[in-house]
Amino acid sequence: MANRIGTKLVFLLAVLLIFSGLVLAATPEFSAEMVQTDAKGKVTTGKIYVQGTTKMRQEFKDGDSVSVTILRLDKKVSWTLLPDQQYMEVQFPFDPNQPNLEIEYEMKTIGSETVNGYPCEIIQYTYKDKKYGILVQWYSEKLGFAVKTQTKDAKGKVTSTIEYRNIVEGKQPDELFEIPSGYTKFSIIPKLPFSF
Predict the structure, then answer these.
(1) Is 128 part of a structural domain of the chain?
(2) Element at 157 (helix H, strand E)
(3) Measured between alpha carbons, how far is residue 73 from residues 24, 52, 121, 170 in Å?
(4) Average pLDDT over residues 5-20
(5) DSSP sequence for 103-144
(6) Span 38-56, mean pLDDT?
(7) Which domain holds residue 28?
(8) Does a structural domain hold residue 16?
């Protein structure tokens, strides 16, 4: 389980880098199938729900269980829903709604392509700090969001690809982006039945 949570946090960091690198012209609101492929070719599928530029929900199926991560840029936090009606909270170390001056990059448009029915500009972000590598996005102005995103290492080798398919534009329910009723915050230190 710790390994799965770690993988989700790495993915979440990639999403934060994506959002911190963009100034979105439109206000996206949609749901879609999400297909993530890692450097070894392993494919993970799930669903994504987006409401504006500050709320995102990702659901990944792993066997019989579904793992859910809710990203709330407006609150500078992400929540991962855990079994037994618990959730884990991660605070962002910087304001994701503001450009992160510590993450400098060079941006250039390298072409255009239609992806899943959406005409896209292909935008490449080359980060000055080599550990962040290169980010390539197929950005749809109509959707107001990147339909496909690829991360590469500093040498240009693809490390992951995320693509959104079967996109359904329209209003998303507010409750998708909140902690469900009855959930309690996960704590490593168990609550004792008595106090000192």
Answers:
(1) yes
(2) none
(3) 14, 10, 25, 20
(4) 46
(5) S-EEEEEEEEEEETTEEEEEEEEEESSGGG-EEEEEEETTTT
(6) 92
(7) 2-176
(8) yes
Instruction: Please state which of the ranges 14-28, 136-150, 169-183 shows the lowest mean pLDDT.
Output: 14-28
Buried b (16+ CB within 10 A) or exposed e, 127-143: beeeebbbbbbbbbeeb
Q: Which residue has the tokens 């490449």?
A: 124
pLDDT band at 2 (very low <50, low <70, confident <90, very high): very low
Quote the pTM value.
0.80
Q: Are 57 and 177 in contact (CB under 8 A)?
A: yes
Q: Is position 125 within any domain?
A: yes
Q: How many domains does the chain have?
A: 1
State how far the Cα of 29 lies from the Cα of 50, in Å rounded to an integer: 5
Both tokens of 73, joined, read 């840029």
Please write the tens of the pLDDT for every residue from 78-132.
999 988 899 999 987 766 555 555 678 899 999 999 999 999 999 999 988 888 8
Is residue 146 within 8 Å of residue 140, measured between CB atoms? yes
- Residue 56 CA to residue 29 CA, distance in Å, equals 10
Asked whether the predicted pLDDT for residue 58 surpasses 60, the reply is: yes
Q: Do 43 and 37 contact (CB within 8 A), yes or no?
A: yes
Q: What is the DSSP string of 3-70?
A: HHHHHHHHHHHHHHHHHHT---SS--EEEEEEEEEETT--EEEEEEEEETTTEEEEEEEETTEEEEEE
Q: Is residue 193 part of a domain?
A: no
